[in-house]
Every structure is written in C-alpha cells, then in structure tokens.
Amino acid sequence: MQISSWVLYLMTRLDAICGASEAIVILSAIAGVSAVFTLLVNAYNDNNSYNDKEEHGMVLLKRTCKILITSFVVSLILTIIVPTTKEMAFIYIAPKALKSAEVQKLPNNVLRVLNVQMESYLKSLNAPVYEYGGSQSEPSEPSTTP
C-alpha cells in the first residue's frame, strides 16, 4: 500500500490541528467563564427594571454562551480524537514494521547482545556472572585497587 502525498501532507498538519483546537478550548473556556460571570452579575443586579437595550444585551450574552459552549465541546473532542504527527506515524508504520521478518529476528539478537554486554560489565566489576544456562561462574578475587 502506497501512501499518497496528500495523506503525508495531512499527517504533517496534525500537530497544527491539535494546537489550534487546544487554543480554541482555552479561549472558549476563558470567554465562557467571563460570560457566566457577567450573567451572574446581571442576574443579581439590584435594578429590576430592564429596558429594551439591557434585555437585548442579555439575549445576546446567552446566545454567545451557547456558541462558546458548542465551540468548547467540539474543540475538546477534536483535541482528544485527532492524533499528533508522531502518533499517526506510529499508527501507520508500527503494524508494517512488526510484520517484517527482520523485526521478528530482532528480539533474540538484542537479547544475545545485551547478555554479552552485561557479562563484560559484571566482569569489569568483579561481580559473580550468571551464565545463560543458569549456572553461576566462580567470582574472581576482588581487586585491591580502587
């Protein structure tokens, strides 16, 4: 399966999409808190006589709150669902890499290399070395020099 240049381009833009939706979430939350605060202040205002101008302002403020809540929820969902570029590359590449024959051989080779490296490290520390078969080799005499 070939990856098209359009899909590759969109994969590189995922970080920007995530960043923009995070910014919208933050700005919507700030604007929503200030709008709710304004609604609360107007609700507890001692002046019970509203004129048409104040009533229109309250309707506009309520509509603004609805828009802010909607944009907050949509952006929050986008922030959660849209993967970053690294995550998308992993989603696309990992299954193909794990199915390759070279990767299937890798764990045994890596285990052997780590075992050899650990044995040489332990020998340099004069610590007892456990062989791969499970038996313990004789420890050498500790060095008297620090």
Protein model, in words:
With 146 residues, the protein is mostly helical. It folds into two domains: 5-92; 100-131, no CATH class. It has helices at 5-43, 52-81, 85-99, 101-124. Helix 1 runs antiparallel to helix 2 (52-81).
Rg computed from alpha carbons, rounded to a whole number of angstroms: 32 Å
Strand content: under 5%
Q: How would you classify the quaternary structure? A: single chain
Overall 3D shape: elongated
Model regions low in confidence, pLDDT < 50 over at least 5 residues: 134-140
Order of helices and strands: HHHH
Give the tags.
146 residues, mainly alpha, 2 domains, 4 helices
Q: Which helices and strands appear, and what pairs or packs with what?
A:
Elements: H1 5-43, H2 52-81, H3 85-99, H4 101-124
Helix pairs in contact: 1-2
Brief summary of the model shown:
With 146 residues, the chain is mostly helical. It has 2 domains: 5-92; 100-131, no CATH class. The protein has helices at residues 5-43, 52-81, 85-99, 101-124.
